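JOB MANIFEST
job_type = single_chain_structure
chain_count = 1
residues = 156
[input]
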Amino acid sequence: MIAHVSLPAENCKQVAEVLAQILNGGAVRFPPGGPDAWNCWSRANDFQIVVTPRGNVMLAGPVEQIWVTRPQPPSAELAYESHFAMAVERPASEVVDLARAAGWQARICSRGGFFEVVEVWVENAYLVEVLDPAQLADYRRSMTVENWKRAFGLEA
């Protein structure tokens, strides 16, 4: 189980609030990440997303991780190496509506015929894949090691 993930944002408060709506949860500030960092939780408090200002990075400090700010490229050049998927209780259509209301690109996509997912492009730069209950059931049925090996010819 993954307890929490983090993602960078320009407007941490807005991102946390929109993701909290998608999760049917809540959002509050995240003081360890600086004055502009925010947290959001799922309704059951079993999943957390930490939203920190773009350019705030974690490094291994002498005792524990430390926060350091690094210069970042202009927003028009934004793209990220990572993404994550999360399951929610809302229908896919509501997830799309909430993301679009925030000004973000959102769409329902098929992942190679295995399952569908809502692509939510947070601030039109960072991908969060959102699975509604039906999509999650398909995901769980299809995303197994055995199916992955079969689909991509990875059987030894």
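[summary]
The helical segments are 12-22, 92-101, 133-142, 145-151.
The domain at 4-151 is CATH 3.10.180.10 (2,3-Dihydroxybiphenyl 1,2-Dioxygenase; domain 1).
exit_status = 0
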